[in-house]
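Fold sample X.
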Amino acid sequence: MPVSMRKGDLSVRWMRTRPLKLQPLEGVPVLSALTGDGRLFLVLSDLHLGLTSRMGLRRPFPEEEASEICQRIGMASRMTGARSLIILGDLKHGLFEPNVHERKALRSLTEELTEDFEVWVMKGNHDYGIEDAMDSRVRIVGKGGLELDNTVFIHGHSLPRLSDSLESYDMMVSGHIHPQWVIDGEWKPVWLILGGRRGRRPKKVIVLPHFNKYASRAGYRPGPPVTIAPFLTRLRLDRYDYEIKDLALNKVDAGRASDMMLMKAAGGAGRI
């Protein structure tokens, strides 16, 4: 696969061959991405290592937290056969230098993952200082994002490389927003999928559920989507429809994206 990358680049690009195929996996907050030349990636976001530690809870220990995440990623790998992994940011929870728990968890996680996967990480807004805590085999992508077959992958707190012409992308994939929905009386992570109407581009925008299994139960809310994710204000949401799917990929809601964001603004930060 041809790659365009230079030291100091803000983005990484794979040149287009055939259209990228994106598919949420059933039962896990992971997206599969199959490139036009047959390379398969697993995509996930928002691990927030150390969330429970910063809440004052003793468990899980750093190594336990890392091991549990690796097991879930391993399950997705067995479902697909993928050996390349893209993490869309917020590996840790704290906003500043990683604390002891986060540093141990990052080291344990990345050492284990890089034994089995080629790992790409783009830094999110919580990822200050993670470089020295990770295995040296991890490849770090700048905030401009990573592009596969004219689809851009970003964390979501900053704009992609072609920020002034988002319509040049076929699709966008993001994390950061933490979409959640009340299912069976509890807040749970969900998929948020936006589809452009009447030829609007990008034709599809996929926002991943957070991978941290404690975040919804802990009530973690990063903020209103249109405030914390600048790409949403560039998209002209009045020209998009939305669909919400649970982790089993059942549709739980759908409608106009602009209406959803209005309800979101009135309904409490961070939860769609």
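Fold sample Y, listed below.
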Amino acid sequence: MKLTRQLLKEMVQQVVRQNKKSFLLNESYQPDPSHAQSYAEIMEVLHGMGASSIGIMSGQNPMAKVDQSANNAQLHQSLIRDVTNQGLRYIEVGGVFGGLPEDSLVIIDPSMDQMAELNRKYKQWGFVYGPAQGGQLPSFVMMKMDVDANDQHTQNPPTIDAGPVEEVIMHPRTMAIKDNYTFDVSSKQKFLIPLYGVPDSIKNTPATPVGSSSDMEV
């Protein structure tokens, strides 16, 4: 299905409505419109709007291990500088993978070679990549970097470890996920590209249909 801007807007509006409903009984809750804007921007990019390709990676926790030197913050800022210096746009996101929290970037319009070089520099296990097709969901794949017996990166090209997947699971369906997810740093709303399958915790949770009944306005 081709995803138009209007259809995507309706999907994100439904997400915001559901989010408002979940907080209606909390007297201290104050809606922040920037949350919806940030999440909407991420969803637009992940649905191929205004991008020829999409990459997702972190510079933190090299080789999926806790960074014992405690310089994860510096690694994240260094990755931002490298991406910026290559003339690429990005959106900062957070995530939890294998129980490890980390800051990541959704990188807009990178080549596969650019993603691989960044992963070598930051000693990463791998990255998510998807060529965008103008409003259609990209075919996302998990690319695994090639390493030698000592966990040192080689110059061999990365290989596909999982995928392709043409799906992005959105909030509120993702609320019950406890590990291996990404989130918008502003609203903390989660999203998931199910490269390794849909988690058991949400398998029986239906997706929010576009245009489902709600009298609330965004």
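Sample Y note: The first strand starts at residue 53 and ends at 58.
Also: Residues 5-202 form one domain.
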